[in-house]
């Protein structure tokens, strides 16, 4: 069991700090100070690049968080599309036409044109494998003057939201010369990626010809620090200005003025197998739901740094709470009568084994007998998807790449869903999910999504327990760092070190 944060030995933090000593260049401390402006921003990030910073992979989110690669569209707080490299767009059936912003240059000095947009989007649409946001989407792109037309095989109301994904960033032609996509010197953002040192570091300099104005910081120095204790120590010692993903166990021993907690669109959920076994009985699913004390999970395992779940969609989607009504139509709780259930989860997220142990105690107190099976995620996912557990604990992103939760709800709870751990096949749920998936964006779609959530909750196929938060560390001199629940922004044009 993990030691409480207040009991962690200080020597561990001190040792971790030594791992970072000298890892940021001397220029980080001095650049710009003689001019009275911000110095370079030192960032400690959790995960090193997995695919050489190719935007066609999850590395795209790093490029976005460093404000070096941009997309045609960005999302507002509610997940609605706003202009970025495209200034406007309109739909006509399966066609969406986007007007490309004038006066934008790539970091290599070439102009942003409709042809450059087509080049980037076509490379993404024909990639193998495709970026996740285009999974199952047949998309073609063509240029006409300063406009780009995106055509999908079926009418798709989410095209603008899809094009907001960092995996569909628009890069200069030079990025696509080789077999892999190389983003160095090829973006359009306020910071130019100038150097990448494998999985250890990256360097970005201010791009003076940025179309949106001049960045307040002269550059960014990034170090990849997978060890959470080391990242926290870097903030404590002053080795880093911005630290992403501070572990819950470390947050309590840091200066709380340096910590910001942001609700994530990620829900910790207990999926119950509705197809076979004990939880095929709706009354026993209800008994499990009633046995779970979610507040004790938040207070005990997450040390108060999470939010008790009222539904599948949490506070990172602020519109959900205002539309949600009390859940109804659920079965009454039955008697577990000592029936044995097996709960699976994985070790990759440090808190989940502790969640499993706590649930084991709570369900046993309610009359179930509970076995736990805990492995690495890569070794347990296939069994979970095949329905080999009575229940499975999963920390699940609820908006995926489009900023829209309908795709998550469909994949997890539709009869044909690709991630249907609950093995749910419910006609009422399927109907609600189809309605949500096809609804136009805006208020109508949000209402349909909440109706679909209610339909899922009525089955007790999933028990939402808590919504996770991202814990970010900002040194005392940092101003205007982004605190983004979708983790698309971190250092922006306005971020600086005072």
From TrEMBL:
Quick check: keyword Signal in the entry? yes
| Signal peptide annotation | 1-26
Spell out the Pfam families in the cross-references: SBP_bac_5
Domain Solute-binding protein family spans what residues? Answer: 82-418
CDD domains in alphabetical order:
PBP2_NikA_DppA_OppA_like_3
Q: Which PROSITE patterns match?
A: PROKAR_LIPOPROTEIN (PS51257)
Coiled-coil features, chain-numbered ranges: none
- Keywords of this entry: Signal
Residue spans crossing the bilayer: none
| Highest taxon of source | Bacteria
Recorded hits in PANTHER family, A to Z, give: MONOACYL PHOSPHATIDYLINOSITOL TETRAMANNOSIDE-BINDING PROTEIN LPQW-RELATED (PTHR30290:SF65), PERIPLASMIC BINDING COMPONENT OF ABC TRANSPORTER (PTHR30290)
| Name of this chain's protein | ABC transporter substrate-binding protein
Q: Which organism is it from?
A: Streptomyces pimonensis
**Taxonomic placement:** Bacteria, Bacillati, Actinomycetota, Actinomycetes, Kitasatosporales
